[in-house]
Amino acid sequence: MKITEAIKSFEKLFGCRISLHDYSGSFRDKPGMREYLSHFNPFCDYVKHRNIKNLKLCVAMDAEILRKHFSENPVPVFKICHAGVLELCVPVLSGTKLIGAMFAGPFHPPGDCYFRSDILRQKTLPAKSGHFEKLALANLKKIKVESFSELLNIALLLSAYIGNSVAIQNQPLSTYGPDKKILLFFEKEFAAKDVSLEKLASFLNLGLSRTSQLLRKHFNKTFSELLMEKRMDCARYLLKETFLRTEDIARTSGFSDSSYFFRVFKSRNLGVTPSQYRKKERTFSLEDAEAKI
Questions:
Q1: What CATH number is attached to the domain comprising 272?
Q2: Which of 90, 209, 236, 264 is deepest in the core (most CB within 10 A)?
Q3: What share of the chain is helix, strand, coil (3-state, %, to 5)?
Q4: What are phi and psi of 80, to 5 degrees?
Q5: Which pLDDT belongs to residue 286?
Q6: Cα gap 249→238, rounded to integer Å
């Protein structure tokens, strides 16, 4: 799956906007990424264009305070900005290097979150807070405190995916052997609707026959077997580590038909259904995740 597709899935799931701050120049030349390199959403756009003071306050929080926070302690944080709206801010790492930050929001915050000590707060603008409050209520999704853990959990996965994808894309392809090139292809394309042996052969700059030989030589599998293995690995991981619905996991793993996904998953996991697998393998509960915030 492409980074942009993963971002769009997240935005659809939570009814919010993803924005990325590029600390290292790692995002700018990636296809489709430029649209995410600023806080382009109607609410933030409106606030910033009201006057220059609002813009400066936004820059102070997002580009200065939070960057300093992530440089010293690269852990996610919820923040309420000067306009009184909530965002989740997550560092993006490539290995151990901080390369950027990801912002998920904005949301209309629940009233009780104003009293939480673990939320970073910027002083609100008294003269404008009432107006912004009405604007937020009318235009932003109101998130419940109970949803914080799900938002955080999936945002961490997305941030890690972005960081890992950037790290992989930044390495020269010429430095890879055929086996690593094949793995790179499946990592990037396994969930694509049009993934095929022909596309892999084109990626390797080889013929179909030679490509099939390499698959057998390095993995002792056919293209279809490797593709299904990668999709199943993705599905098992998401079932175990996230709160995503089975239908969303099927789509994220490359299955356009959730009924087909159910049948394939069951047949390849000794008759265990996706929901049974999740119940058995999950190492934490929603209550545990809430307690960690």
A1: 1.10.10.60
A2: 90
A3: 60, 10, 30
A4: -115, 120
A5: 40
A6: 7
